[in-house]
Amino acid sequence: MQIKKLILIFVTLGLGACSVIPGMHMDQYSDESSIDLPAKEYNAAILKKLNIQTINAQLIIDLEKDINNRSLGPDNVANHYFDYRVGSKASKGALINGSYGQYRVGPRDILNITVWEHPELTIPAGQFRSAESAGNVVGEDGNFFYPYVGVVKAEGKTVEEIRTILTQRLSKYIERVQLDVRVASYRSQRVYIVGEVNQPGIQLVKDIPLTVLEAINSAGGVSTEADQRSITLTRDDKVYNINLLALYEGGDINQNVVLRHGDVLNVPDRQFNKVFILGDTNSVAGSGSTRTRSVYMNKGRMTLNEALSEGGSSNQETSDPARIFVFRSGLEKPEIFHLDAKSPDALLLAERFPLQPRDIVYVDRAEGIRWNQIIGQIQPTMTLITSIAVFLAL
Predict the structure, then answer these.
(1) With contact defined as beta carbons under 8 Å apart, do 294 and 272 qualify?
(2) What pLDDT sits at residue 369?
(3) CA pair distance 91, 231, nearest whole angstrom
C-alpha cells in the first residue's frame, strides 16, 4: 500500500511539472506583455507593459493612412535606424544644390598655356611629352611662374580669370596678345568614396560637376550589401543623409547632390536592416535540426508575409498558426502585434502588414506538441520510478 502511495505521489509531481512548459511561448489569453518595457511618453522614458495589438483589417487601414509606413515615406523608420544604432548625427534631407560655378584652380593642378604666334612662350608638348609633363604646375602656395609675367596667383581663380591676367601683363611686351589657358591635369580637388561600393577610393573634381550619382557610378555602383537609404555625406564637420533609393525609385533629384573638395561619401552596409524569424518554422540547418533565421529587408522594405516565406514559413506539424507575433522594439515606441492565421486567408493581412528593421517574428508552438514534449521529457523519470517501485515490491 505504501509503495502504491509512493508511486501516486511521483505521478502527481510528474503531472504537476506539465505547468512548466519548456521553451519560449506566449500565453494565448494574454492581452499585454508579461514584462515591463522601456517606452517614451511626453518626452520622458517610462517602463510599461505593452498592449498586444491584433493584426486585422482596421489596423492595416490605420497603418496605410500614414505615408511614412510606405517604403519611400520621408520619415520612414528605416531612414532613421542607421543613425540610431551608430550614434550618427546626420541631418535628414539632402543638401539643396546651389548653382554650380566654373572650376576654380587649386594647388597641384597643371595648366597648359598657349600663346599664338609665340612658340617661345608655349612649351611644346612634342611627340614624346604629354601636356601634363610640359604644363605649368600650380605650387602649394597657389602660384605659378610664367615668362615676362612673373608669379601669377592661380588658386581660387577660373581659367578665364587667369587668361585675363596673363593677357594684361603680356600686352606690355606683345601686341594683340592671343592666348588660351586650359587645365591639363586636375589634381587639387578630391572627394572620397568609401563603404559598400565596388571600387572605393578617391575621385577627382573636374570641370564637369561631380554628383553623388556620378561618383557612385564611377566607383562601380553599390554592392549587394549596400544600404541605399542611409548614405552619409560628410562636409565641413557636418553629416548629411542621402537616400539614394528616393532618387532611383522616387525621382527625388535633391538627393543627387553636387560634390565638392573634401567631401566624404559613405555607403554603409545593410546589417541593421534585418528581420529575425523565431519559433516553429520550417527553417533547418545542415544537420536537419531547426534553427532561427535572420533575413535581410530588400531596400528597407518587407511584409510579414515575405518574412514568413523567407524564414521557412510556419511548420504545419508543430506550430500554432493562430499565434504568430511580431515584436517591435521601435526607436521610441515598442509594440507587439498578433496575427491569427489559423485560417489561411488571414495571410492576406500579413501581406499588407509592413515590417520594420530588427522586428522579431515569432511563430508559437501548438499546445498539443508542448504536451507531447513534456511527456517525452518526464517519461524516463517515470520509468525509473516504476522500476524502483517494482524492485521494492519484490
Answers:
(1) no
(2) 55
(3) 11
Tell me the C-alpha distance between 4 and 18, whole Å.
Answer: 22
Angle, helices 2-16/367-393, rounded to nearest 10 degrees: 160
Helices (H) and strands (E) in the chain, counts: 10, 18
The residue assigned the cell 498558426 is 321
CA distance 302 to 71: 9
Average confidence score pLDDT of the chain: 81
Mean pLDDT of 135-143: 93
Using CA atoms, how far residue 49 sits from 28, 63, 365, in Å, is 16, 22, 23
Distances (CA, A) of 162 to 145, 157, 167, 180, 365: 12, 7, 9, 10, 78
Q: Which residues contact 341 (CB under 8 A, 6 or more apart)?
A: 314, 321, 322, 324, 347, 350
The pLDDT of residue 92 is above 80: no
274 with 307: CB under 8 angstroms? no
pTM of this structure: 0.77
The Cα–Cα gap between 309 and 295 comes to 10
Share of the chain above pLDDT 90, in %: 39
Q: What are phi and psi of 366, to 5 degrees?
A: -65, 145
Task: Report the range out of 68-72, 151-155, 268-272 with the highest average pLDDT.
Answer: 151-155
* Domains by residue range for the chain, with CATH: 24-65+273-366 (3.10.560.10), 72-102+187-270 (3.10.560.10), 110-185 (3.30.1950.10)
Contact 184, 123 (CB under 8 A): no
Residue that is written with C-alpha cell 609665340 in the block: 118
Cell numbers linked to 173: 611686351
